[in-house]
From TrEMBL:
GO terms for cellular component: cytosol; nucleus. Pfam families: MT-A70. One of its GO terms (molecular function) is site-specific DNA-methyltransferase (adenine-specific) activity. This is Methyltransferase-like protein 4. Signal peptide: none annotated. Residues 424-437 have a biased composition (Low complexity). Residues 56-92, 408-437 are annotated as: Disordered. PANTHER family: N(6)-ADENINE-SPECIFIC METHYLTRANSFERASE METTL4, N6-ADENOSINE-METHYLTRANSFERASE. It comes from the Eukaryota. GO terms for biological process: methylation. Belongs to the MT-A70-like family.
């Protein structure tokens, strides 16, 4: 389990452990149907944020092949010199929002981090390795753009299997069909000339807005929909890390066609108040989604410190999640609408990835708020999760094999006996917590 601590203020997550849990059994599948048993773990260097004030290296320009890596530095970023009276309305609103939630985040983080440290977690990484390797350039969005020129698929079949009955992965159309990996183990497969590691029991569609129809025609109603939209902001525009999307375009997402009644909809929102207002006042009402809670993801170092000062005007060490329930006009009776009350202002504490936009999985945190065996969907996904369906124009980004350590397994059973990612202290922390639940 990746939940290290669960208490009143929220949760402390071991994000790396949760990723690795989906790859305890992995095979490398060849086009000839051959299988090689592998040990597979996500590279731990990406989760070794040991110091505050981490930022993208100013020397790493977008065309240098390092657009997504966050570098650790002891220096606080330089601020633009200007008079305090020059704050614009957006900055004034940001300060007001921060003051409103500051005490919740400060006190909740203190409590949760102290509990985690008493369990042996967030006390530093005694097994810290060298700096994380630079990530590969991701050309998936560009491929999706080119795929828009392909003729639409007229066939009724909108679903395909990743691995055929003969064990082959050839002739896979990633852009026009939902691809299912229906096996119980992860698979390292060649797709478009690159190797990707696909978790078990997952489905995905690589496309943009213009080719979402296969997902709508997938004939699944989802009980949980999580999305991390590419919000517009000046930083993204300057760095050109990814293409942003105007807020108004989000209304085009077919959420009502994808959601089951009472579906839990969770949206990652930047700390820009206009984005938060848009989600709560326009986007969710447009979909008949009722806001039920706001949570915060608090990013800490391996020593339990905020990655940025809590009151920093440059960047905050937290992001907001807006949780809502889909309430269709013709909803089932109250007896069929059983749901668990969702508490407001809960915190999710974790060490962030050094990879831009790699959010922690919310699967274990949200399990208690959805029905057993729920169908789960992630929109604007940049990676896959076991048992989930995912969509986005970079949906395989963090599945590239270069993010993983892949070694042949002499004994397939050994793949489930790997030491916990955070060293020997992680095991007692987890077992102690769950024994007292």
């Amino acid at each position: 389990m990746s939940v290290v601590v669960q208490s009143g203020p929220g949760w402390v997550l071991n994000a790396l452990l949760l990723i690795d849990a989906g790859y305890q059994r992995c095979v490398r599948t060849g086009n000839d149907g051959s299988n090689l048993q592998l040990k597979c773990t996500f590279k731990r260097q990406y989760f070794q944020i040991s110091k505050s004030y981490y930022n993208r290296s100013p020397s790493a320009a977008p065309n240098e092949g390092k657009p997504d890596i966050l570098q650790v530095t002891d220096k606080q970023p330089k601020k633009r010199k200007r008079k305090r009276s020059e704050l614009n309305q957006g900055e004034i609103d940001s300060q007001a929002f921060h003051q409103k939630v500051r005490s919740v985040i400060l006190e909740g983080t203190k409590t949760l981090v102290a509990s985690a440290q008493s369990c042996g977690y967030l006390n530093g990484d005694a097994h810290a390795e060298k700096e994380a390797p630079p990530p590969p350039e991701c050309g998936l969005a560009a491929l999706c753009e080119m795929a828009k020129d392909l003729p639409p698929v007229d066939e009724e079949e909108h679903v395909q299997r990743l691995i055929s009955e003969g064990g082959c992965t050839t002739n896979i159309d990633l852009f026009s069909r939902v691809t299912e990996h229906d096996q119980d183990c992860a698979a390292a497969v060649k797709l478009m000339g690159q190797e990707y590691v696909i978790p078990p029991r997952t489905a995905f569609l690589l496309s943009d807005f213009t080719r979402m129809n296969p997902l709508v025609e997938y004939e699944k109603s989802f009980d949980l929909i999580v999305m991390d939209p590419p919000w517009e902001n000046k930083s993204v525009k300057r760095s050109q890390r990814y293409s942003s999307l105007p807020s108004s375009q989000l209304k085009r997402l077919p959420v009502p066609q994808l959601a089951s009644p009472n579906c839990l909809v969770v949206t990652w929102v930047t700390n820009r108040p206009s984005h938060l207002r848009f989600v709560c006042d326009e986007l969710y009402p447009h979909w008949n989604v009722q806001v039920v809670a706001k949570w915060f993801w608090v990013k800490v170092t391996t020593l339990g410190q905020f990655v940025f000062p809590l009151d920093s005007q440059h960047k905050k060490p937290y992001e907001t999640l807006v949780l809502g329930r889909y309430r269709p006009a013709a909803s089932p009776s109250d007896s069929e609408m059983k749901e668990v009350l969702i508490e407001d202002n809960r915190l999710i504490i974790s060490v962030p990835s050094a990879l831009h936009s790699q959010k922690p999985s919310l699967s274990e945190v949200l399990n208690s708020y959805i029905r057993p065996g729920a169908e789960c969907l992630e929109l604007f996904a940049r990676g896959l999760q076991p048992g989930w369906t995912s969509w986005g124009n970079e949906v395989l980004k963090f599945q590239h094999s270069s993010y993983f350590t892949l070694t042949p397994a002499d004994d397939p059973a050994d793949t489930s006996k790997e030491e916990a990612p955070d060293g020997p202290s992680a095991a007692p922390a987890l077992s102690s917590h769950h024994a007292n639940r």
